[in-house]
Write a structure and sequence with these properties.
Layout (H helix, E strand, L loop, with lengths): L1 H5 L1 H23 L16 E2 L6 E2 L15 H15 L7 H8 L3 H20 L4 H11 L4 H16 L5 H15 L4 H14 L4 H13 L3 H17 L3 H18 L2 H18 L2 H17 L3 H18 L2 H13 L9
Antiparallel strand pairs: 1-2
Length: 339
């Protein structure tokens, strides 16, 4: 824990570098998406804040396509960097500091989606100036104009009636993504609004769970991840189930329920192995490794950590490799005899 706090800027830099590289590849895949259908892909995030530490696995996300006049990746990156320099939420609690220490690439992606939406709205609007000004402000770390525009879009879509509720939910989700970096309660309210408008919005439910966890509302986080688990079971989405199960393990471990936490991690790992999801497997190995060492089995725990490091190396996740390597050193795993 102390190591992460002391080196959070370095870790954040690695995570941002990885994030930008991934989005550059994703952008080409989504470039063909029509402006008439600007809704973002559903994303599920598995964050591994194991006992206050943790691993963030890759999210399920289609990426962000380029729009005329704005680069969503660049603006999201600039906004996040500006927020980190200001440090508006860094001291709020340990959970957020850990999210920032790892770059919180999933939240950067959510901001990029919001930027993308603003860009599309600017192209449609009779007067694009307010949207372009909001994008310029975001790049400098000033979220107020963008949040105000999305607030107006939200009101307009709600007024349009039932057929526009998913659009309204998307606007609320974008407010939550931007506010994530500077106002936890505003972000929480926005995501609560999003799931009220669209109860099947897995992305919003997932972020809501992370925010409740950040605020120390562990019961609320459990109920939120259980909602995602229910949605996943309804549509037989094993990937969604694996993500939700892993996140439940994180909360149970934080609550000190180690038996339940281990059960959740192992269920998540089994599903990820079935699916061949290396990023999920690596996160589960890392979380299980730290938990196993905490429970006194250093040899087995170290083996799991080394498995996590190996998979993250295969994935090219440099920030995660460095993080797990620090745990291996901290726990003296290099000195653990292997048979």
């Amino acid at each position: 824990m102390e190591w992460i706090f002391e080196h959070w800027k370095t870790l954040g830099g690695w995570a941002v570098a990885l994030f930008v590289g991934l989005l550059a590849a994703w952008a080409a895949l989504r470039a063909a998406r029509k402006k008439s259908d600007p809704s973002p892909s559903v994303q599920n995030t598995q964050t591994g804040q194991t006992g206050g530490q943790g691993i963030q696995a890759q999210e399920i996300h289609g990426g962000v396509h380029q729009t005329v006049g704005a680069d969503p990746t660049e603006i999201a990156h600039s906004y996040a960097e500006a927020m980190r320099k200001v440090g508006k939420l860094e001291s709020e609690n340990e959970s957020l500091r850990e999210q920032l220490s790892q770059g919180e690439d999933t939240s950067l992606t959510a901001v990029a989606d919001a930027v993308e939406e603003l860009s599309i709205e600017a192209e449609r609007a009779e007067d694009p100036d307010p949207f372009e000004a909001a994008l310029a402000e975001l790049r400098e770390g000033n979220p107020e104009a963008a949040e105000e525009l999305f607030g107006q879009i939200l009101k307009d879509r709600q007024a349009d009636g039932e057929l526009a509720l998913k659009d309204a939910a998307r606007a609320a989700r974008h407010i939550g993504a931007i506010a994530f970096y500077h106002d936890t309660h505003k972000s929480l309210e926005a995501y609560q609004n999003a799931v009220a408008l669209d109860p099947d919005d897995v992305e919003a439910w997932n972020k809501l769970g992370h925010l409740r966890y950040r605020l120390g509302d562990l019961d609320g986080a459990v109920s939120t991840y259980e909602k995602i688990l229910s949605l996943g079971n309804t549509i037989s989405d094993k990937e969604m189930i694996a993500v939700a199960t892993g996140n439940l393990g994180i909360v149970y471990e934080t609550r000190g329920d180690l038996d339940e936490a281990e059960d959740m991690y192992r269920k998540s790992l089994a599903l990820n192995e079935q699916l061949g999801r290396k990023q999920g497997m690596a996160a589960d190995y890392g979380n299980l490794g730290m938990l196993t060492i905490e429970r006194g089995d250093e040899k087995a725990g170290c083996a799991l950590l080394k498995d996590a490091k190996r998979l993250f190396m295969e994935l090219g996740a440099a920030d995660k490799v460095e993080l797990v390597a620090s745990w291996i050193e901290e726990k003296g795993c290099d000195d653990t005899a292997e048979n």
